[in-house]
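[Q] Does anyone have a clean structure-token version of this?
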Amino acid sequence: MRLRKAGGNWVDGDRFFDREVELEALAERVRHGGSTLLTAQRRIGKTSLVRELLRRLKQTGEFEPIFVDLEAARDPADAIAEISVHAKEALGAWTRMKRVFANVLQQVDRIDELAIADVKVKLRAGIDAGNWQQRGDAVLGSLAESDRPVVLAMDELPILVNRMLKGDRQHVTAEGRQIADAFLSWLRKNGQAHRGRMCMIVSGSVGLEPVLAQAGLSAQANIFSPYELRPWSEDTAVSCLRALSQSYGIDLPEEIRTDMCGRLRSCIPHHVQMFFDKMHEHLRRAGKSGATVEDVESVYRHEMLGVRGQLDLQHYEGRLEEILGRAGDLIALELLTAAAVNGFLDDGMVERYRAYYSDLAGEERAGAPDVDGVLHLLEHDGYLERGNGGYRFVSGLLEDWWFNRHGRHFAPVFGSGSDEGEPDR
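[A] Here you go.
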């Protein structure tokens, strides 16, 4: 098969590879009418899977698929405006939606000729803090009246909920908790009211459950049935590299492809594609048509882990502060660096970190999650995995990159740690 490079944040069609089992499982859930929370570690391809699922469902003519990206939304009104404007993707729904917002749109000539962003501004103006639930009920009710059942996919819902919980603060506020609780209760109510006519699929670059756990709202995730999306097997990743190499006319023998996947350790689709792209460019610059073991070593060390690889992986850091706040992010940075330096974060060291951070007080700890809360997020979102009395990085690539970025002059906050010197890297 011919396979094109991914080249972006999500893929579908001829850039999409494998995942047939997962697509079939999710399609079955849609046909049963339930709502799904897609869980996975970072960069696993959740958005790509959902978009490919919606593309295929649209082709069958069974459903009206609608994809909504909530990353820029800050409150329930923003979310409802986003959902409303994307109703243009569903046959007949946009006509009904314009009736919902008739008082806002009646003075706007040629609304159908406006750009999506301009329409969204008009719709957002018709939703305020006092009527968002009523407007939202009307919006989802209009979608549920479609001739075919609607599949409403909401990407980055966890990011939106996190913003609701914290606003401009670094920690959960009482007001934010009330807003998030009301919004999730509203989603639950509508999911139940329109079961059989509308189902929801939720995904995001961070996990919803750890976000809710910070606010004691974990039960609000019960509306969604979780589905875990796992990394590719090594065989699948090796097959992907073979398909890419054939498409771009370069020679990657099986032992080379296996070596590439072994260095990644966890075959996250984005990382597999990233490794191929950097290998392709390396060979092109060298005027070579085939790769050797030396090429794999050079690309991994100088491209994947070097300065040029920073932009591809630094999002792993950025999301932590957004979800955990500054104080929680410092704990995460400490734990991850200790794990990268030592190759393992054993239970004894975890206990020392618990004792150290529990003794801190005042501004330095205000609103921060404890060590166990941080570990819960790191494990849930695929940074670390637990086993044999401690934690280790799931991804070999992320572990090596984190060590290069933070570990070379690391000393634990509670004093001297390992006296074995720098690990052999």
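[Q] Thanks! Anything notable?
[A] The radius of gyration is 24 Å.
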